[in-house]
Design brief:
Blueprint lengths: L1 H13 L2 H35 L2 E2 L7 E2 L3 H7 L2 H35 L3 H9 L6 H11 L6 H8 L11 H12 L4 H12 L3 H9 L4 H12 L1 H15 L4 H7 L8 H5 L3 H11 L3 H26 L9
Antiparallel strand pairs: 1-2
Helix pairs in contact: 2-16, 3-16, 4-8, 4-9, 4-12, 4-15, 5-9, 6-13, 12-16, 15-16
């Protein structure tokens, strides 16, 4: 830090008046972001870290209790349930969402001029309000009148209790999540269009069939985008909240057997903070989630060196 300060002072002393004005102008332009980061991100993180070491119910001042909130998490069975549910969802949602999005993008590449229309159609659900999605899918997954079970009935199949059977709650939520893969489709479509056509031509000359071209040309060339969506979707899936809360917890009916199957980590954190007013415990939960996501992201970054290809790297 001291060496960086010396370098900065040395540069400032040798800079021309124009360079100094440009530096001040640059600092002025980034200052709104920097102030916003301090006020809305860094500041709340520091405060939440302090609150995680306290007992705080919003009404009374925080009281320091050390690591009791973290010790409590070790003995909280519902926290374990919520973690399991979140990991279950991430484990199935991330590969399915990436696979479906890649399949749709491969189709759009071959559609031609109509690709613009379908790209917009696929993307629209991604900008639909989460509350609306939860309400819509609560009806679609309804065991008696839902569209999915009605369609299964036409095929002679008895549909499961998507919203009532604890064994089918999480699969139903995973199915709902595929509704909004449009943003991933757009990313994959852009990556596919950037693959040089001559690579496919060379592969065909070497006798590669469609599968070999996909495996040896397409996947390596879009691996950077695949890696980006893997990291982003993993982080997002571990923080799923609004849709599931709308479906199962919006009426504040408590923890029924069915609702426990949909008790995801962020929902349990929210309930602890704003329903039970245990802000200190909720802050500790937030930091646990931060550490989990950080570890997973570091692992993905290190593992990416084995399969991600960067052109010119």
């Amino acid at each position: 830090m001291a060496s960086n300060s010396l370098v900065a002072r040395s540069f400032w002393g040798r800079a021309t008046p124009l360079q100094r004005r440009e530096m001040l102008a640059g600092l002025g332009f980034i200052s709104p972001w920097f102030i916003g980061f301090l006020v809305f991100t860094a500041g709340p993180m520091v405060i939440s870290l302090w609150l995680s070491l306290t007992r705080y119910d919003v009404i009374n001042p925080p009281r320091y209790i050390g690591f009791q909130n973290y010790e409590r998490m070790l003995a909280d069975p519902r926290l374990g349930t919520s973690l399991f549910n979140s990991f279950y969802y991430a484990l199935f949602h991330v590969p399915l969402a990436m696979g479906v999005a890649l399949g749709l993008a491969l189709i759009l590449v071959r559609v031609g001029r109509a690709a613009g229309f379908f790209r917009t159609a696929f993307y629209l659900p991604s900008v639909t309000p989460a509350v609306a999605i939860g309400t819509l899918w609560l009806w679609i997954l309804n065991p008696q009148i839902g569209l999915i079970n009605r369609g299964l009935e036409l095929l002679g199949i008895q549909g499961p209790g998507w919203t009532t059977d604890p064994d089918w709650i999480k699969p139903g939520i995973v199915l709902m999540s595929l509704w909004s893969v449009g943003n991933t489709v757009v990313l994959y479509l852009a990556a596919l269009r950037n693959v040089p056509p001559e690579l496919y031509e060379a592969a065909r000359i070497d006798g590669a069939n469609s599968w070999n071209q996909f495996r040896n040309v397409t996947i390596p060339m879009i691996s950077g985008t695949l890696f980006f969506t893997l990291v982003v979707n993993t982080i997002a899936s571990l923080q799923i909240f609004a849709e599931v809360y709308t479906m199962y917890f919006g009426n504040m009916t408590g923890m029924s057997a069915a609702a426990s199957a949909g008790l995801f980590y962020n929902i349990y954190l929210f309930r602890q903070a704003f329903e039970f007013l245990q802000m200190g415990y909720a802050s500790a939960m937030a930091w646990l989630l931060f550490v989990i996501i950080l570890i997973l992201t570091i692992f993905q970054l290190r593992a990416s060196k084995r399969w991600v290809y960067y052109e010119g790297g």
